[in-house]
Design a protein that fits this description.
alpha/beta; four-stranded antiparallel beta sheet; globular
Length: 289
């Protein structure tokens, strides 16, 4: 889309000027990797210029000028560069020690390794993605000291396991409008519809992989309803046991679009201006059997 057309389209959802300005000026952030170092020790030994995040003890907003990927903290696996919004899906899923968890679209591994940290390297975490995407996933798993992960290479649109996992994360491929303004240049509503069709196949297979009373979190870094509320509404229509749960994190957000009904309204829209970070969409679904 041309810039004016994109602004007009975006204005149907939120303040377009504020959305775009925030993306252009967002500060980098990172997550302290508690598998290798505690927050207390990190704060005592690290000289990185950063400030703590009010709603997540492991998150830091970087205020320095260095490239985080060139720091000793990065090479030692003490930190992982990650946007604040990207940290929300694992927190919404809230895996516990000993859980059996599937991250069905795992690469490059930011959320996979965060899940492992929340699980304290216990239980079993299946990190699934296509073979060509492992090149980004495996180095992060190794650098951050994750040992409870098994990597698999199944197509998420045709995932074979059924009724298996206690918790599933679906951080779906999307048009990425919340991440970069460059994405808007190639964006069209037709593209969002086509991506939504792919996401529906993925979420259906991910949901079917859940055990009874299991929980799934669906997320995208976009704002197009075809990839957000439209996907969740479709799942509720096609999987009668699927029920939307409230996300209980204490984080600024807006509720899902009201025109999709009261159940879908329990989902979250996190615009860039909420956290000074990426735009994200989140939904927490329980398999009630």
């Amino acid at each position: 889309m041309e810039e004016k057309e994109f602004r007009d389209w975006l204005s149907a959802y939120t303040d377009a000027d504020l959305f775009i300005s925030t993306i252009l000026h967002q500060r980098p952030s990172f997550r302290v990797n508690t598998l290798k170092i505690s927050n207390e020790t990190f704060d005592a030994v690290s000289n990185l210029e950063c400030k703590k995040c009010a709603w997540y003890a492991d998150a830091r907003i970087f205020e320095g000028k260095a490239q985080l990927g060139n720091t000793f903290e990065y090479f030692l696996g003490y930190i992982h560069p990650q946007s604040l919004s990207s940290m929300l899906p694992p927190l919404a899923l809230a895996p516990e020690e000993g859980d059996y968890v599937l991250d069905i679209c795992a690469s490059p591994g930011s959320k996979t390794t965060q899940l492992a940290a929340l699980m304290k390297n216990t239980g079993t975490l299946i990190a699934n993605d296509l073979p060509e995407r492992e090149i980004a996933l495996i180095p992060n798993i190794a650098r951050l000291g994750v040992i409870n992960v098994i990597c698999t290479n199944k197509d998420a649109k045709n995932y074979p396991l059924k009724n298996e996992f206690k918790k599933v994360l679906v951080d779906a491929p999307c048009t990425a409008l919340g991440s970069s303004l460059n994405a808007s240049k190639r964006f069209s509503v037709e593209m969002a519809r086509k991506m939504g069709d792919i996401q529906k196949r993925i979420i259906a297979n991910a949901y079917d992989a859940l055990a009874e009373n299991g929980v799934l979190v669906y997320s995208t870094c976009t704002v197009a309803e075809e990839e957000c509320e439209g996907v969740i509404s479709w799942l509720l229509e096609n999987r009668q046991s699927a029920k939307v749960e409230e996300i209980t994190l204490n984080v600024p957000h807006e509720r899902g679009l009201a025109e999709y009904g009261s159940e879908v309204a329990k989902t979250w829209r996190v615009y860039p201006q909420h956290l000074g970070s990426e735009g994200f969409y989140l939904a927490r679904i329980k398999k009630v059997v």
